[in-house]
Amino acid sequence: MDSEARKAHVEALDRTRRVLERPLLVVLGIAAVVILIGAVFVMRSVSPVSGGRLYVALAAVLILGAVDTQIGRVLFRRRPIRLDEPIYDPRYKIISVLVLVASAILLIGLALYMP
User: What is the tens place of the pLDDT at every residue in 98-108?
Assistant: First the structure.
């Protein structure tokens, strides 16, 4: 009886996870886009002489990295922990790093060369 109750409890938790996972990923994706666009708008209003644009760009890249970490945690939360394989999918990490580097190049380029 205890085993059946545990199995039912785990199934209920899995259903809840599946229901909440997609909206959470959508919210995190929207947050990343808003951070990127917001950083560009803030950089337009900051004086380029003081170096404030560069600070805004670097802060936005750090925040985007934090959002990416949370997306990775949501995607790979239920994987069992094993010592012989990485926690994250290698393809996900490669794509994640490439997108983060591209956004950093875009933001820092805009910070340095925006009129």
Answer: 999 999 999 99
Kind and range of the H or E run holding 80: none
Q: What is the pTM of this model?
A: 0.78
Which own/partner pairs from 102-108 qualify as long-range (CB within 8 Å, at least 24 positions apart)? 103/36, 103/60, 103/61, 103/64, 104/57, 104/61, 106/36, 107/36, 107/39, 107/40, 107/43, 107/57, 107/60, 107/61, 108/54, 108/57, 108/58, 108/61
Q: What does the pLDDT look like over 13-40, one tens digit per residue?
A: 778 878 888 899 899 999 999 999 999 9
Give the C-alpha separation, 33 to 30, whole Å: 5
